[in-house]
Structures are given as C-alpha cells and as structure tokens.
Specification:
Blueprint: H1 7-14, H2 23-55, H3 71-81, H4 92-108, E1 116-121, E2 124-128, H5 136-157, H6 161-192, H7 197-203, E3 209-212, E4 215-218, H8 223-226, H9 228-241, H10 253-256, H11 266-291, H12 313-334, H13 340-370, H14 375-403
Helix pairs in contact: 2-11, 2-12, 3-11, 4-5, 4-11, 5-6, 6-9, 6-13, 9-11, 9-13, 11-12, 13-14
C-alpha cells in the first residue's frame, strides 16, 4: 500500500534535479535559449509577411535568401545602419533605457519554460529547462509586468504628445489584461496542485478518473479539455497582452502615427520590434506549457513508448508553438481593430467576471471530488449556479439600461443656415448628372426658413 505525498513534498521531489548543473552547462542552456529566440524572431517575421501576403493574394518576401528567409535579417541590418535620432525634448537617459526595459524581461521569462525531459548533454544528465522553482508561473507574470515600464517610459521620455498617448494606452491595456491572464492560471494551479512549470507539465501526463452518475469514466490529461474556459480567457488575454491585432491599440496608426515608439529609430526601434516578437513566442510557450501538455507528444503519437523520451519532445513543443504563432498571424490578417472602449469593456466586464466565476466552479469541483462525490451531480450543480448568476447579471444589466437617460434625436443642422454657401459634392465618375449649382440664398430669403 502506497501513501500519497503532500503537495509540498511532491514539488520538492520534482524540483530536486534543478540547481545541480555545472556552470558551463548553465551557460550553454542560456546561450541556446537566446539563439533559439532570435532565430524564432527572424522566422516569425518571415512567416507573418508570407502568410498575410497569401491571405491578401500577394507574394510576400521572396528575394533575400531561399524563399525570402533572410528578409528579417536584412531588415535588422538596415535598422542598425540607420541614423540614431534622439529628439531635443526627450529625456535622454530614460529614452535609451526604455527599449532595454522592454526587451530584457521578454528573454528572462524563458528561464523557467520546460523544453523537454531529462537528457544527456556531454555525459551529464540534465532537464531541458534552465531552472524551475515552486512559484515559476508567478515569476513569469512578475517579469512580464516589468516590460510595461519600458513601453510607458518610452512614450513619456519622447517629449511628444502622440507617443505619450500610446504609452498610456498600453499601460491601461496590459494591466487590464494581465489581471484576466493571472486569473486564468488559478484553475491550472488548482488542478495541478503546483505553480512549478515542470510540475504542471507532469500533471498533464495522464488523465485521472471520476464517477459520473455511478459510472467510472476516464478524464483527458491536457488542461485545454478540462479547463477550456481558462484556455479561451488566456488566449484572448495573451493577444491583448502582446499588443497584437485586433488589440494593437497602443500602436494604432490612424490616430497615434506609430504609438509609443514614434520617435525611435535605428537599433532602439529594433529592440521594441524584437521584444514584441519574443513576447509572442513567450505567451505561446506558456499556453503550451499550461494547457497543451508542454513538451509531451499529442495523441496518437503518444501511443509510441519513446515519444516523450530523449530529444523527440523538442519537436512536439516547437510544433505547438508554431500553431499558436499561426493563430496570431491569422487574427492579424482577418479581424479589424476594436474600438478602445469595446476593448476595455471586454477585459473588465467579460473576461475578469467570467474568470472569477470559473475559479469558484473549479474550486467547488475539486473540493467535492476530494470527498468522493459523484462528478455528474457536481457538474449539474455548477451549471445551475452559473445559470442563476447569469440570470441575476442580466436582470441587473437590464435595470441599469432602463435607468439610462433617453437619447434625444436632434434635427440635422442646416448647411445653408446664415446664408453661407456650401459647395456641392463632385459627381462620381461615369455618373450622368446635371451640373449642380451653389445656392447663395440667405436664411431669410428661403421659403419656410
């Protein structure tokens, strides 16, 4: 008879393999992560331009290198050779520091992302992960929030109105969607019993079982199935967190020229560009780790006994990353940009309340299941409670709608009021219309005025 270990003991046992690597192996892992992210950035730029071009029936980059693969590298060289301009009104120290603050956290978050299981590197057994600790996911949230300062300070230090507006927009947007993103993780913590990234991947190794109306059923392992609402909330939040279309309001060209980086050029602008694409890969890797089983092979590849051993998991991990990145590109080429009020309403009035209700439901299921209750009755109770909450919410919303003042429809303004002439619109090409004349009749001369 085996005795189950408490959560703290299990976490300590799972993290025992970290922190024992020699210094040269740690440096090798860090350099490998940096190289992978830089190469991924170049491929993301090429892939985004090619995919969006295909959606718009264009060709895309195809000149530099085979299939245009070196186009991103040439763009980086071009930016490095451009003149570095600092506005006179800018705060120079903060202006230079801002892009560094934006790009550094994007790389630091990868320290706790698991790429695969234990492998042998030059005779040393080591996990394919730089490090891990009991609160690794909270570390990712904390480090990612520092990147907001780089964007805000970039807008403030430029000494210009439009970058400042872009920085303020970005701070409000990223703070709002970080709340929803953090709440979507809580259900994962409740199911896995840990905040360690490697422990969460291990918890998705195999599904458990539950009693459903007296019948034992098997549960899937990946949390994208068990925690689908959390996954949907996270996917929406990660698009808003990375300032990507249709949530790219901090860089809305129509009203902000370029957003917080309007005054930047040369390598400083390239750092912001690099930070955006590294963050794109980071949130995709985090979604893979928390909801798609991490580096574990999907079914039916998982039926092969060696699918999750050795270096094979690297293929499954990066394949899942590519799928997420394609979804980012797909959204950019498909959806129009939201209005700012619609965007903030989605975050504060939809995603956050839904996350809170879902956390309560998952916690209730976990507590009741620990007592051996029937899962079917628990699910029915949760759905009834959710329906009651939605009913109360709709009644309160309808009551608030009735209290709103009625919209007064005013008559359209008279363009000829005061006797000022209004020139006619030019005729459309090909339309046979009589030449219009400009009326200079005064307000008093027109009948019925």
């Amino acid at each position: 008879m085996t005795t189950a270990l408490p959560a703290t003991a299990r976490t300590a046992e799972e993290l025992a393999g970290f922190g024992t690597d020699p210094w040269w192996l740690i440096v090798l892992k860090a350099v490998a992560i940096f190289v992978v992210l830089v190469v991924f950035t170049l491929l993301n730029i090429w892939g985004e331009r090619r995919v969006v071009a295909r959606m718009q029936q264009r060709i895309g980059p195809n000149r530099v290198g085979p299939f245009g693969l070196l186009q991103g590298l040439m763009d980086g060289v071009k930016l490095a050779l451009k003149e570095d301009i600092i506005p006179k009104a800018a705060d120079k120290a903060v202006f230079v520091l801002a892009p560094i603050l934006a790009v550094t956290p994007a790389f630091l978050t990868w320290a706790v992302i698991p790429f695969g299981p234990e492998v042998s590197i030059f005779g040393h057994r080591t996990p394919l992960q730089l490090t891990d600790f009991p609160v690794a996911v909270l570390y990712i949230l904390a480090v990612a929030s520092v990147g907001i300062y780089g964007i805000v300070l970039a807008g403030w230090s430029s000494g210009s109105t439009y970058p400042l507006l872009g920085g303020l927009r970005s701070s409000a947007q990223m703070i709002s969607y970080e709340v929803a993103m953090g709440l979507s993780f809580v259900a994962v913590f409740l199911m896995a019993g840990s905040m360690s990234t490697s422990a969460i991947v291990e918890a998705q190794a195999g599904g458990g079982s539950a009693e459903l109306f007296g019948t034992t059923i098997g549960l899937p392992g990946w949390y994208i199935v068990l925690l689908l609402p959390s996954f949907v909330i996270y996917v929406i939040s990660m698009v808003g967190e990375t300032n990507r279309a249709p949530f790219d309001l901090p860089e809305a060209e129509g009203e902000l020229v370029g957003g917080f980086h309007t005054e930047y050029s040369s390598l400083k602008f390239a750092l912001f560009f690099l930070a955006e694409y590294v963050n794109l890969v980071t949130v995709s890797a985090l979604a893979t780790t928390l909801f798609l089983g991490g580096w574990r092979a999907p079914w039916p590849i998982s039926l092969w006994s060696g699918a999750n051993q050795g270096w094979w998991p690297l293929i499954w991990f990066f394949s899942k990353l590519v799928v997420f990145i394609f979804v980012f590109i797909w959204l950019r080429g498909t959806l129009p940009r939201l209005r700012y009020d619609q965007f903030m309403k989605l975050g504060w009035k939809v995603l956050i309340p839904t996350s809170l209700v879902w956390i309560v439901a998952v916690a209730a299921v976990r507590v009741v299941r620990s007592g051996g209750a029937d899962l079917g009755r628990v699910v029915i109770g949760v759905f009834v409670a959710a329906a009651l909450l939605m009913l109360v919410w709709s009644m309160l919303d309808a009551r608030a709608e009735r209290k709103r003042p009625a919209v007064v429809h005013r008559a359209p303004p008279d363009p000829f009021a005061g006797g000022h002439p209004v020139p006619p619109l030019p005729p459309r090409p090909g339309a046979a219309h009589a030449p219009a004349t400009v009326s200079v009749q005064s307000h008093e001369e027109r009948p019925g005025a």
